[in-house]
Write a structure and sequence with these properties.
The protein is mainly beta and 120 residues long. The chain is 0% helix and 52% strand.
Length: 120
């Protein structure tokens, strides 16, 4: 069955960085666009970024594209989210997700999430 396991969350100071990882199994990883979403206390579930199956293209929510970078390693079935210049409003549960189509925000499976807290 499809499994997505996130890691790398934790406590970061404002201005700091974190890199989230997600290991996928149960499907042919290199065939699917992958995404990151987050659930914040105030805004609910929000799509953050997506990357094409071969890594040739990436897409971001406009408000985050200057600070976040999505990447993938198809040899190791892993997708990453590099988060820089973190702000308290980035505090959220972050989820790795498999896209069901070429629209990276249309996801059909997601993991349990990894919590990110940005605070001094």
């Amino acid at each position: 069955q499809v499994q997505l396991v996130e890691s790398g969350g934790g406590l970061a100071q404002p201005g700091g960085s974190l890199r989230l990882s997600c290991v996928a199994s149960g499907f042919i990883f290199s065939n699917f666009t992958m995404s990151w979403l987050r659930r914040t206390p105030g805004n609910g579930l929000e799509w953050v970024a997506g990357i094409w199956n071969d890594g040739s293209d990436t897409h971001y929510i406009d408000s985050l594209k200057a600070r976040f970078t999505i990447a993938r390693d198809n040899a190791n079935n892993t997708v990453y989210l590099q988060m820089n210049s973190l702000k308290p409003e980035d505090t959220a549960m972050y989820y790795c997700a498999r896209a069901a189509s070429n629209r990276p925000w249309e996801v059909d499976y997601w993991g349990q999430g990894t919590r990110v807290t940005v605070s001094s």
